[in-house]
Design brief:
The chain is built from seven helices and 19 strands. The protein has 346 residues and is of the alpha+beta class. The chain has two domains: 165 residues, Roll (C8orf32 fold), CATH 3.10.620; 108 residues, Immunoglobulins (Immunoglobulin-like), CATH 2.60.40. The strands form five sheets. Strands 1, 2, 3, 4 and 5 form a five-stranded mixed beta sheet that branches. A five-stranded antiparallel beta sheet has the order 10-11-9-8-12, covered by helices on one side. A four-stranded antiparallel beta sheet has the order 16-15-18-19, with no helix packed on it. Helix 3 crosses helix 7, helix 4 packs antiparallel against helix 7 and helix 6 crosses helix 7. The radius of gyration is 25 Å and the shape is elongated. The N terminus is likely disordered.
């Protein structure tokens, strides 16, 4: 990874109390984010923005294969944690955090100013809809995609800001509003504006979709809206993508038949599954709580973005009619269930 962070003072600011001038250093070959193209296997992108009278910028080189890795993943929005807390972009997010920290230390920024600087950077990215930028009604970007594309909608910029601020050690929440997503950050001091009490702490609203929004300042249309607060919890999203069965030939003298079961499991992240197992039940119907036969199989854990097909054998007594219920279980993810109907073992 290639990373350069630059900044310069453009006028005296009373809040930051910065004096003097710092030259803006440009990396050879770095282009604006909007026209970034891979060169020698890297997207080399430069981002300028202003915060409190200072022009800041950083330049980053992101490997083309890392960008492609995220672009080729599924982009739905039912669980945003695998975007914010993904394993495979941690080194890049940490480099960004390191540069923001270094810039903050150089200019004596407070913790709150460090937050505002990150927010100002993310707010400087161009807002676009998924339809105009991707030709899709819904497309959630990973932070690496937003950094390379330098555009995004409310979900994309919130995901990027949350990933950076969380890695910096700040406590943040996602704020889910009707047709909108924003951030809230924990702040000990009383500050004017919209805030939420969560787990004993105060979290102040942060609007990310345009420049100039201050801490606690919320758009008028959301002032009276009900907000759902989502904490940042690293928990894999493991799913049963497909399940099926077949059984060997049998004769009327057999009292049971071995079902050969197959299940394809994918871990969308973040992180590696722990204690993953598959519980299989043969039931008379999908609503029944009583199982004709049930067995639990230990499975190999999957890393983030891992995908595997597991094959197991389930002895089923005959005759049996009903459904096969597959439950993917584990210690650090929510159980996923898939039902195969129309099982008829005469």
């Amino acid at each position: 990874m290639i990373f350069v962070f630059d900044h310069r003072l453009i006028h005296l600011n009373m809040r930051l109390r910065l004096f003097g001038t710092v030259l803006l250093l440009l990396c050879c070959g770095v282009v604006s984010a909007q026209s970034a193209k891979p060169v020698d296997g890297y997207y080399r992108v430069k981002y300028p923005w202003s915060y409190n009278g200072v022009v800041w910028s950083f330049s980053v080189g992101i490997p083309e294969n890392v960008y492609d890795f995220y672009r080729e993943r599924t982009h739905y929005n039912d669980d945003l944690m695998h975007y914010i807390l993904s394993d495979y972009d941690r080194d890049y997010i940490r480099e960004i955090v390191s540069s923001f920290r270094a810039g903050g230390e150089k200019w004596g920024l407070s913790d709150l100013d460090n937050v505002f600087n990150v927010v100002s950077f993310v707010q400087s990215l161009k807002y676009v809809t998924d339809a105009s930028s991707k030709g899709e009604e819904e497309y959630v970007r990973y932070p690496i995609e937003t950094l390379v594309d330098a555009v995004g909608d409310c979900e994309d910029v919130v995901i990027l800001a949350a990933a950076i601020l969380h890695e910096m050690g700040y406590k943040v929440l996602l704020v889910l509003l009707p047709d909108h997503l924003a951030l809230a950050i924990q702040y000990d001091k009383v500050f004017p504006g919209t805030c939420y009490k969560y787990d004993g702490d105060l979290y102040y609203y942060l609007e990310m979709t345009d420049k100039g929004w201050d801490l606690g300042q919320i758009p008028d249309r959301y002032e009276s809206a009900t907000a759902k607060l989502i904490p940042l919890v690293s928990r894999p999203l493991a799913r049963l993508m497909w399940c099926g069965y077949q059984y060997a030939s049998y004769n009327t003298a057999m009292t049971s038949v071995d079902f050969e079961l197959q299940c394809t499991v994918e871990n969308f992240g973040p992180g590696t599954t722990s204690g993953m197992s598959m519980r299989v039940r043969m039931k008379s119907d999908k609503y029944s709580e009583e199982a004709i036969v049930e067995h639990v199989y230990a499975l190999q854990d999957l890393p983030e973005a891992g995908k595997a097909t597991f094959k197991v054998t389930l002895p089923v007594p005959r005759p049996a009619q009903g459904v096969l219920e597959f439950l993917l279980e584990g210690q650090n993810f929510v159980t996923d269930t898939l039902v195969v109907e129309g099982v008829d073992l005469k």
